[in-house]
Design goal:
- This protein is mainly beta and about 190 residues long.
- β2 and β3 form a beta hairpin.
- An eight-stranded antiparallel β-barrel has the order 1-2-3-4-5-6-7-8.
- It is built from three helices and eight strands.
- The longest helix is centred in the N-terminal third of the chain and has 14 residues.
- The C terminus is likely disordered.
- It is about 15% helix and about 50% strand.
Length: about 190
């Protein structure tokens, strides 16, 4: 199953793009972090648990055009008793905040989730990135993952919270960055 997830993640990198709060000059970013799956308390008797941790969570993002970013992520649960692997794809809208120190976004997307069987989810959420330098930031987001009526037999709607460290790639030289970069570091 891990090989399938790695294969699907590799394909998602080829076919998706996006980063939290990127701009036209800094299109690509990577994020490594962790997450947690949160089921409502009413599902505890059915599932046997309410929470399952996710580590690691890898994502790749690319800024596409004005305020729009595409992102793909892979998360794995280290706890085999609470098996949960997810491959997520999302479109983010950043409200024109991509040049700000704090950049917020809304997202819509979908996931292929492997618990005991494979399921598709429709995701809605919001997140943000705190840029501490030109290339490094801290990201967090919260998603609601909904499932179809048919899939609710095997999987329940739930929340997914994640966070991580973001590194943004730039194709400009240092002198070009200093001449054109509008965002200041947090401590300036």
């Amino acid at each position: 199953m891990i090989k399938k997830c790695i294969y699907l993640f590799s394909l998602s990198i080829l076919f998706t793009t996006g980063i939290q709060s990127q701009d036209i000059s800094n299109k690509w970013a990577i994020n490594i972090g962790s997450g947690i799956v949160i089921y409502p308390g009413e599902y505890d008797p059915y599932l046997g648990f309410r929470y399952t941790e996710q580590f690691p969570r890898f994502s790749v993002s690319r800024y596409m055009f004005k305020n729009i970013t595409f992102s793909g992520a892979l998360s794995i649960s280290p706890n085999q008793r609470k098996k949960y692997t997810t491959l997520d794809g999302e479109i983010r809208y950043d409200f024109g905040t991509s040049e700000n120190i704090i950049s917020i976004y809304a997202l819509i997307g979908g996931s292929i989730t492997d618990t005991k069987t494979l399921h598709l989810t429709l995701n809605f959420g919001a997140g943000g990135t705190l840029w501490v330098s030109d290339s490094w930031g801290l990201n967090s987001q919260l998603m609601y993952k909904d499932v179809s009526e048919f899939a609710k037999i095997y999987q329940k709607p739930h929340f997914y919270a994640g966070g991580g460290i973001v590194y943004r790639f730039s194709n400009r030289t240092t002198s070009q960055k200093k001449a054109t970069w509008n965002r200041k570091r947090l401590w300036d």
